[in-house]
Automatic annotation (TrEMBL):
UniProt keyword annotation of Oxidoreductase present: yes
Any GO BP annotation: linoleic acid metabolic process
Molecular-function GO terms, alphabetical: linoleate 11-lipoxygenase activity; metal ion binding
Gene3D superfamilies linked: 3.10.450.60, Lipoxygenase-1, Domain 5
Pfam families for this protein: Lipoxygenase
Record keywords: Dioxygenase, Metal-binding, Oxidoreductase, Signal
Protein name: Manganese lipoxygenase
Length: 613
């Protein structure tokens, strides 16, 4: 019954939306246009006028969901935002229809189970067996409902969503309280020995301890702990947990030597803290950066600029994400607070706090970031037996880089030609200076940090490749991943539904889990980000098709760009096939990934090429 609340809220929102006029135009220019760089444009005067018009009509409003990138306003800005909302609305109606069908069916399964979920197995079976087939036809990731109690599963999850993991240094050895004796029992070595052997890794969510910043959900029914944790590499270079400290209440350190239930609960507490980090990191580090670059481009590049065509393509629907978040996720007592332990206020504060670092540009180039955290070296070699995230991500990046290398080569024969492109020069300056205007100054917004100073051919390739990568990073954290993997129950509750224990010796983790109703709400919420229909559209709206299809390619007269798009499609499709073929092998591990579940979150034949809310 209470689930009707979720649906009525969604429906209430849709009523106010359909009242708005539909703006379907993607571009504010009049019937674009074959692209060209300004110095080759036949009518430079008209082009300057057009850029000036865009500059004056695409303005910066205050940021949304915390202080990060500004939000568009002005005539052109409002048109874009309105178009994005309308585009999202279509997807939203479809996925909501699917969720409603699925929820109706799952309610029957729960009723047939006497209306409750009594055991851990009930969570994995009643909630998932032959369920969610409309909203999530790919089903939960293989192994995710069967192998979650394994420490190799928990360690493996760090290597598919490595956003909070780093190689430990001296000060980190105190992140848990563990005796030499216990450490030896678990890892065969003391913490000091692991540290000096470069076999110690850490996650530190202790910042979440400040409840004036990370205010708990205003539903007052969920709990969590600002955990810190250490991980170690065993002799096979597999990453395994050494211990987790709660940093709250009795401040217990849990280890694999504890009773089964205590240790499982500790890992669930870790998951509660880590997914808060992952979800709000995704807002800070992907949406906001992508939007900031596009906004600056809207004010400096002509609609006929080749780079504008790429940025427009990648920012399809982009400006729906934050308004949708404001309206129905991070609103007071909204879906976020309903499902997660730390409130929407905490989410906003996280975005503001970490925009200068997670939102920085060059330091977050994939390899630069992973290298800084000790997860790969200069040559891209990781210390782990396998590093599934890096394997997939680096292959995708290689294909993206190849496309943008040809792209930049096609339009610029030399660095001097890049320098002579005043639109690109203005774009860089605009990104670096950041948003302006009374609204954003009052809010104190800062630019994307560490954006390169000056464009050159290689710099442009780096910038375009990283910008395109951010779209993919998004889908490793949001979109279809949570419903299939990172937020599957029972292992990944949004919050504990009982306070963090003051002592070890719990009899069961079940009382700490969301009840049947809250579980369905939580899975339905995760499913609302999934976009399974995109892969069956014609042409598909998947990463593989990012630069294919007549709509996009019509902008480009140069054969090189068409050929590069074909090559990109072919290479991405091959990566998609490899991803599709993953299964649990005879040794219980996923094909090529060495972990007891299959991580398929960034399949180029499944994920959208754009931010999809
Ligand atoms: C597009 O065309 C319309 C009607 O011809 C005109 O009013 C408008 O100013 C044009 N917009 C731009 C950006 O040139
Ligand atoms: C600026 O943003 C605020 C907050 O989202 C909104 O209320 C206001 O209408 C916006 N202003 C313009 C001119 O779009
Ligand atoms: C439901 O409850 C009844 C009566 O308590 C019991 O006989 C039955 O086995 C239960 N069914 C399930 C699926 O637990
Ligand atoms: C937990 O223990 C650590 C060290 O043992 C200490 O530094 C920290 O302040 C404690 N936190 C709380 C909330 O008790
Ligand atoms: C299930 O949990 C939700 C969320 O905490 C709560 O509002 C609801 O009352 C609970 N339902 C039952 C039957 O306990
Ligand atoms: C993981 O689960 C699958 C069934 O989903 C099973 O075949 C496999 O053996 C399990 N892996 C391990 C390491 O237990
Ligand atoms: Fe998102």
């Amino acid at each position: 019954m209470p689930r009707l609340a979720l649906m009525s809220l969604l429906l209430a929102c849709s009523t106010s939306v359909t009242a708005a006029a539909l703006h379907i135009r993607q571009s504010d220019s009049n019937g674009t246009t074959t692209v060209t760089i300004p110095q080759r444009d036949a009518d430079r005067a008209a082009r300057k006028k057009e850029v000036a018009y865009r500059h004056d009509n695409f303005l910066y409003n205050i940021s949304q969901i915390g202080n990060a990138a500004a939000f568009p306003m002005g005539k052109i800005g409002e048109e874009r935002v309105s178009a994005a909302w309308d585009q999202w609305q279509i997807d939203r109606d479809i996925i909501n229809g699917h969720i409603q069908k699925d929820v109706a069916q799952i309610r029957q399964a729960i009723v047939a189970n006497n209306g409750t979920l009594r055991t851990l197995d009930d969570y994995a079976t009643v909630l998932y067996k032959d369920q969610w087939l409309n909203a999530s036809p790919l089903k939960p990731a293989l192994g995710s409902l069967t192998n979650y109690t394994l420490d190799s599963f928990f360690g493996g999850e760090r290597l598919v969503r490595p956003y909070s993991l780093y190689k430990a240094s001296d000060k980190d050895s105190k992140l848990i309280d563990i005796s030499d004796e216990d450490a030896k029992k678990i890892a065969g070595s003391t913490v000091a020995e692991l540290l000096s052997a470069n076999r110690l890794f850490a996650v530190d969510h202790s910042y979440q301890a400040d409840q004036t910043v990370y205010v708990p959900s205003q539903f007052n029914d969920k709990y969590g702990a600002p955990v810190t944790a250490l991980f170690y590499l065993n002799d096979n270079k597999e990453l395994l947990p050494l211990g987790i400290r709660t940093n709250t209440g009795a401040n217990l350190t849990y280890t694999p030597l504890d009773g089964e239930n205590d240790w499982l609960l500790a890992k669930m507490m870790f998951n509660v803290a880590d997914q808060f980090h992952a979800q709000i990191y995704h807002l800070t580090a992907t949406h906001n950066v992508g939007e900031a670059l596009h906004e600056a481009a809207m004010r400096t590049l002509s609609d006929a600029h080749p780079i504008m065509a790429v940025l427009d393509r990648l920012n399809y629907q982009a400006y729906s994400a934050r308004p949708v978040g404001e309206a129905m996720c991070f609103n007071p007592m909204g879906h976020w607070d309903e499902n997660f332990h730390i409130s929407q206020i905490g989410c906003r504060n996280f975005v503001t706090e970490y925009w200068p670092t997670y939102g920085a540009f060059e330091p977050n180039y994939l390899q630069t970031d992973l290298h800084a955290r000790g997860l790969v070296d200069e040559a891209g070699i990781s210390p782990f037996k396998t590093f599934p995230f890096w394997d997939d991500a680096s292959e995708i990046l290689r294909v993206q880089r190849e496309f943008f290398t040809t792209f930049v080569d096609t339009y610029y024969t030399s660095d001097e030609e890049v320098t002579a492109d005043e639109e690109v020069g203005d774009w860089f300056e605009e990104v670096r200076r950041g948003p302006t205007g009374p609204e954003v100054e009052a809010q104190g917004l800062t630019p994307v940090a560490s954006f390169p100073e000056k464009a050159a051919k290689k710099v442009l390739v780096d910038v375009l490749t990283h910008n395109a990568w951010l779209q993919v990073a998004h889908h490793s954290l949001n979109a279809g991943d949570p419903v299939r993997s990172s937020l599957t129950l029972p292992f990944h509750p949004g919050g504990l539904h009982k306070p963090v224990p003051e002592a070890k010796g719990i009899e069961s983790v079940v009382p700490f889990l969301p009840n049947a109703t809250a579980s369905v709400t939580s899975i339905g919420f995760s499913a609302s980000f999934n976009r399974p229909r995109y892969r069956t559209m014609d042409p598909p709206r998947t990463l593989a098709y990012a630069y294919s299809g007549p709509e996009f390619l019509a902008h480009f007269a140069e054969k090189e760009v068409h050929d590069a798009a074909d090559k990109y499609l072919e290479d991405m499709t091959r990566l998609g096939e490899k991803n599709d073929a993953r299964k649990i092998e005879a040794d219980g591990m996923c094909t090529g990934q060495g972990i007891p579940f299959c991580w398929t979150a960034i399949n180029p034949s499944y994920i959208p090429w754009f931010f999809s809310v």
